[in-house]
Each structure stands twice: as C-alpha cells, then as structure tokens.
Amino acid sequence: MIGSVSVGVRARRWVALCLYLLFGLLSWITVETASAADCPGHPDALGTSRTLVVDPRQHPRIGTMQYPETLPLEDHEVVLTFDDGPLPRNSNQVLEILAAQCVKATFFTIGRMARENPAGVRKLRDAGHSIGTHSQNHPLTFHKMPIEQAKQEIDDGIASTLAALGDGAALAPFFRIPGLLRAEGVEEYLESQGIQIWSADFPADDWRHVSSSRVYDLAIKRLEDKGKGILLLHDIQARTVAALPRILQELKTRGYRIVHVVPATVELAATPTEPQQWQLHPPSETVAISRWPKIPTFSFAETGLLPAPVLSDSYWNDDWPIADRARRRAGGVPLPAQAPWPQPTPLPPQRTASDLPVPAQSVFELQDKFRFAFARAARTAEPAVTAEQRQEPDSAKRHVADAGASHRKAAGKSHAGRVRRTGVAHAGGRAPRHATHGGSRALKRVVQVKKRSV
Ligand SMILES: [Zn+2]
Predict the structure, then answer these.
(1) Fewest Cβ atoms nearer than 10 Å: which of 48, 65, 302, 399?
(2) This prediction's pTM
(3) CATH class, range 34-278
(4) What is the dihedral of CA 112, 260, 263, 273, to 10 degrees?
C-alpha cells in the first residue's frame, strides 16, 4: 500500500517536471518565433522583446544620469533612444538599420528639424517607433534661460513635430532637455503638462569628435557596467550610423533584449510595475535598509506649549553666591556647613629600617661542627659527581646549573648572596682548591648530595 502510494507520488512529480520543461521550451520557442515573425527576411534579427507602457504622471523623471528613477527594465534589457533628428540622410540610414533588426526605439525630434523634414518625422511614426520632442531650436541654455523662454522652446518643438505628423496620437508625451541641462522650473513645467522627462542611463559620446569604433566601445562598455538601461544616441551623426550595426549585433551576441516604450493612453493601460522596479539597481531584500521599519507618523493629543525657562532659573548664574546655588541644587534644603564625609585620620609614623637592631658578628660565624660536616660531605660527594658528569655531562651541567640557580634564588640575587657563598668555601678550610677555583662549585655539590638523599 505504502509502496504504491510512493510510486504514485513519484509519477506525478515526473509528470509535473515534464510539463514544466515542456512549458519552458514552448515559451522559448514562442519568444524566438515572435522575434523572427516580426522580422520577416531576418531570422537572426535582434528583434524587440517586449513593449513597456508607461504613465508619465506616475513617473515624470527617468534616467539615472540625473534622476533616481529609470525605466522598469529587467536585467539585460535595453531601450534605444535617438536625439536631434530627423536629418534625412543619417536618420534614414538609422531607420534602415533598425528595421533590419526589427528593433523599435524612441526618437526625440527637434522642432526646427521637423519643420524642415516633416516626411522624416512621419517615417519614424510609420516604422512604429515612439516619438518624443527635444525643443524647437536645441538651445544649450535650458539650465539658465528664463522659464518663459524655456516654455516657448518646449511648446514650439511639440507644435512643429505635431504639424509634421498631422496626428496628435502619434506623438508621445516624452521630452529630453537639450544637453541634459536640467532646471527645476523646466521640470516642473513639463510635469504640469503631463510630459515625462527622459534623461538616460548612459551615453556613447557620439556627439563628440570620436570614431565610430569608439562609439561602439562606449555603448557596449557602459551597458555592460550597468547591465541594462536607456542608451542615448544621435541619429543625425554619421559615426552613429556606422557604429549601430555592430552595436545591435553585439547586443544580440551578449544576450541583451530590446524594449520598446510607449505612453499609456485611455485605451492602453500602463504595464503593472512595483515602485522598486523603477530603480536601476533596487536594494536587495537582504539589505537591511530596505527592510528597515518606516518612522511612524505621530499625532499629538495635546499640543499646548510648556513655558520657556528663563535665565534666572539656571544654576550657573554667577551672580548668585555659592551657598545660594548649593541650596538650590539641594532642592531648597539647607546644606550643612561642613561636608559629612569623614575627615582623614593622621597615621603614626612608619618604622624605618634604621630602627632595627644591628645584628651581632656571632650571627654570621659557623660553629665547628657545621664546618666539619660541610667538608666531609664535600669529600664524599666528589667521586659520585665526577662519575655522573662523565656519563651525562650535559644533564649534569644542567643539574649543577639548576642547583646553582635554585641556590641563588634561595640566597637572593644580590651581591651579598655571592659574598656569603664565598665565605662558606673559605670556611671549609680543608678544601682550599674549592676556595681557589670557586667556592660556589663546592656548595653545588653539597646541594646535589642533599637532593639524592631525599
Ligand atoms: Zn540633443
């Protein structure tokens, strides 16, 4: 019974696993097929992986080059943007390159260019790209010009592009400030108009006097550094036209996916997102600050004010007598005139060494019986020590050294201790060799004999 249940569970797991793998394979095929299907004649095209619908009023400022938020992209997702067109020759080539890869992008047109080349603006629309605006004359003074002038630049650029399109629905409420020279007043005006301000996440410096190879290198390197984001390019630049095929090819090789961004409308709802997705690198759940509790909002029941303290209530008013200040510190209770801490008691003078009696000379004299015993012990111990030293010279030396050290410890390290050992050797009388060659040696032997007898 148990065995059949176990087999049944295992079988269901296998079926679930197979279905999961099949679903994943079908999803992969669907994505790949979608890219290829959207790009007939170009089976290896990079394609556009998805369309992101954004609400400008919910997220009015995007692009981490200047703002905290950016588009809610997944890792390895890229949004291509092109500024300053349309310029017939270069912009048309950019459109052809993008079409060959079935890539959808966002173009920020200049009003004056749109008036000169309205067909170019319509080509952008017909190719399915998003169209934002980039001012009327591209002045690089948005950060310091009067707000009324900035408003005029913004409004005229929109009007010129709309006039070229002939269709208001084809224009996205997206605006990029020329030179990214932002100003608070300009941003507030754009927000009030429901227009989303697009900075970028990284440029490729294609407006500078650099080679197309350099544009390619910068685009790929900066994208790799961030892993995803909005790439800023210029469709009017020949070097960009030259670099773009390689950039798109490299994006595909490295597994990047193109995202097309369109504005939300009454008919088209914004793509559901979470607030943290609008950050380029949202803090991980493992980062403590992202889980830190919010500061609560307090509401105070009683908002009456306490009386402000006056200077006379302070304790450090130097005009007060010290006793008065002390009384106030004690809470009004008068303090005793003298502190209750016990007074120090005078101690009797310490006795010094000069008070001890001088030892008599007889204290240091050895009696005859001790003198005899020392000499006899020295004679008896000498052969045994010699034999021991012959057998184990090193250990014997250490033994003697240890004995000497212990003796010195006992006698103290003072010069007086050495003098006393010498005195013992001399006291032997009948062993002048010891006295001559070191009285301490005789004394060490005595110590060894004593140790052996224990
Ligand atoms: Zn520009």
Answers:
(1) 302
(2) 0.58
(3) alpha beta
(4) -140
